[in-house]
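4.2 Preliminary Data

To establish feasibility before requesting continued support, the project team ran the inverse folding procedure on a target of 461 residues. The structure was first converted into the token representation described in Section 3, and no sequence information of any kind was made available to the design step. The complete token record follows.
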């Protein structure tokens, strides 16, 4: 577009055509904004994203639209204005072409709900695209959207990024405004500090650009990391050889760039996982349950809904019911200890941030498995206990660290066609170091969509 080889109209039209062609099978979009996008493309705003087609998670407000969060029970939010993050993208010249699908209440690791149905993985439609920003993973990975806006409370950006083979960046919770989104993060809950808004893209370069717009500050290339933190407390498990190979490749690339191993006594993820479970059961689950009071004032009942589900007449997504049912179990097993759980997490945040400083990164698999078949993700993740496939992922939310998932195309599984994701995390304020490390890893283990993507032949945006 800068060279005059293409117009915003032609670029938007290409993406809309690709989106509409893929939508019947992949179902990444909750709404396609064809007429509005075409009208804006005729006279795009100037700016760093001028004319670029982007997609927005359905939980972010769009003026004149509703936020359903994929629920038939919860009364929708009517949006008088764009969410602040959406407005930042528009002010930079981006053109919103779609709102993307989510699991109900954006609280599951795969994307399905009673309103918009199931989204499927572009790399292998028999597999889940992840969640809760699963529709964004689908749209960006299939080439239907140049950039996506998602949110992440326990991996919701990085899971779909890893499963769909794109880049997903979870900033610090305060970096990108959540005003005008659901949940807004201003409910006074401690778990709000786990929730961040951020971009999905097909390259680290594009992620850097999108983040600079969303956060309102430049994230210029910085120095490579000097240290790579390792420690016995940072426990995780990978269930496919391609994941271990990808992490080893990333580690070698960072070592070649000058990063040295720095063994540290890191916070024990097992202790933090238990503290997280207590806060979910005592704080988040009751808050979500209250949201299910319907427009007629009827309060939600877990036993009544379970009976409906068994009779095939459920009103909510089974994965959401599974999460809500966790609350009473946790409150029974751990009747107190919420303040202690908060203190445990706050103390660990102080320790890990001091250890990371401004020149170190953590390295781990994004998720300790490749995208499972539909339905299996919830069975494997929505249950009590320490889940070592998820500990590294959720660690970054609990610690409120910026973290990025990079696809390892060079270690693509030939049988399933899926791509492992490698995650890097850094201290707050060290985003430049983190993104620079991600570019080093991307150059070593990721080919990018131009040569090894999901068959659409598209280059980076």
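Position-by-position output of the design step:
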């Amino acid at each position: 577009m800068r060279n005059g080889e293409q117009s915003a109209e032609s670029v938007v039209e290409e993406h809309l055509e690709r989106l509409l062609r893929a939508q019947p099978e992949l179902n990444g979009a909750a709404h396609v904004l064809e007429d509005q996008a075409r009208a804006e493309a005729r006279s795009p705003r100037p700016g760093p994203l001028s004319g670029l087609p982007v997609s927005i998670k359905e939980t972010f407000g769009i003026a004149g639209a509703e936020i359903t969060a994929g629920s038939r029970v919860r009364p929708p939010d009517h949006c008088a204005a764009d969410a602040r993050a959406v407005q930042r993208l528009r002010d930079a010249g981006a053109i919103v072409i779609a709102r993307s699908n989510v699991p109900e209440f954006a609280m599951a690791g795969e994307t399905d709900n009673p309103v918009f149905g199931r989204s499927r993985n572009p790399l292998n439609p028999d597999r889940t695209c992840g969640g809760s920003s699963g529709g964004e993973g689908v749209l960006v990975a299939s080439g239907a959207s140049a950039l996506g806006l998602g949110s992440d409370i326990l991996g919701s950006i990085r899971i779909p990024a890893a499963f769909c083979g794109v880049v997903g960046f979870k900033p610090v919770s305060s970096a990108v405004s959540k005003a005008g989104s659901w949940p807004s993060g201003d409910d006074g809950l401690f778990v709000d500090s786990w929730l961040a808004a951020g971009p999905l893209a097909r390259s680290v370069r594009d992620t850097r650009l999108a983040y600079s717009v969303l956060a309102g500050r430049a994230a210029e290339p910085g120095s490579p990391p000097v240290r790579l933190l390792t420690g016995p407390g940072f426990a995780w498990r990978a269930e496919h050889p391609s994941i271990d190979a990808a992490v080893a490749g990333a580690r070698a690339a960072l070592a070649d760039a000058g990063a040295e191993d720095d063994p540290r006594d890191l916070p024990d993820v097992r202790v933090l996982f238990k503290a997280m479970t207590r806060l979910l059961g005592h704080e988040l689950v009751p808050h979500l349950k209250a949201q299910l009071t319907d427009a007629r004032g009827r309060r939600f009942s877990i036993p009544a809904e379970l009976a409906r589900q068994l009779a095939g007449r459920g009103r909510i997504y089974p994965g959401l019911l599974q999460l809500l049912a966790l609350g009473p179990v946790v409150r029974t097993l751990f009747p107190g200890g919420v303040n202690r759980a908060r203190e445990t997490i706050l103390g660990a945040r102080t320790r890990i941030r001091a250890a990371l400083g401004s020149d170190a990164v953590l390295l781990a698999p994004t998720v300790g498995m490749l995208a499972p078949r539909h339905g299996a993700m919830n069975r494997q993740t929505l249950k009590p206990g320490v889940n070592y496939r998820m500990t590294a992922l959720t660690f970054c939310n609990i610690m409120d660290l910026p973290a990025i998932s990079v696809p390892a195309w060079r270690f693509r599984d030939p049988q399933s066609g899926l791509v492992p994701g490698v995650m890097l995390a850094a201290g707050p304020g060290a985003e430049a170091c983190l993104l620079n490390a991600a570019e080093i890893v991307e150059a070593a283990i990721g080919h990018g969509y131009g040569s090894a993507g999901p068959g659409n032949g598209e280059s980076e945006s």
